[in-house]
Amino acid sequence: MGYRSLAALISRYPWFIILSWVLVIGMSAVWAWKLPDIVQDHGLKLVQGQAQAVEQIMEQEYNFPPDPVVLLFHKHPDTSMKMFRDWLTESLSAVRTLPAISAVISPLDAHTQGRMLHEDQAYALLHMNAEPRQIGSVLKQLRELLSSDEHTYVPGTVHLTGKAVVQQDVNRLSFRDLERAEIVGVPIALIVLCVAFRGLYAACIAVMMGISAVITAMGVTSLLGYHLELSNFIINVIPMVGMALSIDFALIILSRYREELQRIYKREGQFHLGSNSTLQRELLQQSLRTAGRAVLFSAACVLLGLLGLLWIRLPMFLSVSLGATIVLVLSLLLNVTLLPAILSLNANRIFRSFLLKNSSPHQSAAEAGLEDSFWHRWSAMVMKHPVWMGLAGTTLLLWCVFPVIRMELAVPDASSLPATMESRQAAEQIQRNFGQAGMSVIDIVIGEKAKPLTASHLERAADKLRELKQDPRVTSIHSLWNISGSYMQLTIGVQGEPGSDEMRDWLKQARAADLGAGLEGIPIRYGGEAVHQDEIIQEVFQRLPKVLVFVVVSNYLVLLLAFRSLLIPLKAIAMNLLSLAASFGILVWVFNEGHLGMQPSAVAIMIPVFIAGLVFGISMDYGVFMLSRIQEVYRQTGESDLAVQQGLASTGRLITSAAGILLSVTVPFAFAEVEGVRQLGIGITAAVLIDVTIIRLVLVPSLMKLMGRWNWWLPGRH
């Protein structure tokens, strides 16, 4: 369907379009608020990896719970050890009565006392037989059971931790972060829009587009959550992406519509338009042909960035790509159907005040003041000194990029929660008091499903045990081989925390030694948190080049199609990559090095990938719109310098407003309680600030000046 047909359809059936969207949004709202209860953990796990396979073997063959809930018991100083043990027994007996608890590993069991009971502390492991969306209610029952003690004297305290508990806390805090961000961000975005449109009606409509896109996307995603495993990260990603993009799209279309309305008023001497008049259809058609086209290409660039995340085979990246794609598509559809339908019915009321103040039948105030605007004067100044301005901007960006070489990445764990959270404190106490600090627990499994053990397996196990005893980095061997029908299992402790270079080197050498043993057909697998993190890190780093190649090449082709130029897409992509690298440098400075009041910590491994996927496309949003206006003027005049000056002058205010809206949405997330969300908020904020200042105000006009007519060169075009 072309722009003309779409404009005619909207002009003819505006009420049908509006009522249809109201129905869809209303139905989605019913499901949207269920999303926090439907999402699962962070989704950082390699389903095809060894760690996942070993986890399943441990559960099926040895009844060891995967991702258990951990109960940490702490004895009061004046409590005797006998009373403490009796309390442990009573508490765990009560826990076993809960229907959702299928297994309990007690610190009082004979084979666990040395590892799970230490002085005045002990911990137990619980296996929950519950669906992910039921975990919250099970944990609530567990807390109520453990806190309701009939004794007048309680021998100690009990705290809950474990992956399931940590993820529930992350979900709860993420939703709280989202509520705070909306309370702060939406009013600020409304103020920015009021300034941009010099009126309240248009600003409210743009905000309504953003809220509608987010509600509808969260509702659709909630329904998909009953069939797919969704990462809890989408709770924040959908509103962040949806509010920013949908309001930006609305801003671009509303601004162009107002400009075309002003042009018609100048030509016709009146601005009262009928809902299905020829002038109304012309207005919608021109707005969709220009601003709608820019929005379409911008959405395509963002979509390609999101699709690039699918190269990484981790559920988190699939979830984020899916959620952000849904809200992107809905933002696009809302702004090219619902928004024009509203305008076709209410344009006179929305823009009446602006037209009366800023237009006359004889002269366009916007055109009259274009050459006197700050943006026109600034672009003229930059283009007078393109070499020096270009060097200054590039030097500043490279200075921001330099810290990237010191970037430290890690798989997020309980430390991503605030230090006051019970689940984090309990996890840290277990690491500190049960000999787990500075070491990793590794599960080793020999054998294959449905194949009985043979003498070769026993020989291999003996060789492996001998090898481990001689390895100085192996600090403990918790038991001899546990033998089941098809498997042999051993648990060891190794120097080096999960995710550390030391631990990754040990795993690499252990696997190499297994290959060198030459015993084919006798599989040996490694599992545990250290293996889990090693597989995630390898997956991200091995797949990242494919992500970058896909995003860069696909965006280049889209921009080549949009602007019919070889050099403009290259320049736009190079500027985006430089902007992203600079934002990563700021992340290192803030989090790895601990500035701006932050404690030094590693950057969550998914954050740079998400920033690259999201910001690469969002930056193209501004770039495509600005370059579209420059191209429009160039086609009219054939003068490259004039096109750059007028294009920047006519879009500078709009792009600044769009950036202000995006910042109003992302900056509140920089103060989130969950560290990963905080890192994402600061990273996107830094990237946007760099893009709308150094890139758009300095590097783009200076490079456009230096390239001159070569900006628009395409082989075979005359």
Automatic annotation (TrEMBL):
Protein's UniProt keywords contain Membrane: yes
Signal sequence extent: none
One GO CC annotation: plasma membrane
Annotated compartments: Cell membrane
Ranges annotated as spanning the membrane: 12-33, 183-201, 208-227, 233-254, 294-314, 320-343, 387-405, 547-566, 573-591, 603-625, 654-674, 680-699
InterPro entries cross-referenced by the UniProt entry: MMPL_dom, Mycobact_MmpL, SSD
Principal subcellular localisation of the protein: membrane
Keyword Transmembrane: yes
Domain of life the protein comes from: Bacteria
Domain annotation SSD: ranges: 206-345
Keywords recorded for this protein, A-Z: Cell membrane, Membrane, Transmembrane, Transmembrane helix
Membrane topology, from the record: Multi-pass membrane protein
PANTHER family noted in UniProt: MEMBRANE PROTEIN MJ1562-RELATED, MEMBRANE PROTEIN YDFJ
Name of the protein this chain belongs to: MMPL family transporter
Organism of this sequence: Paenibacillus barcinonensis
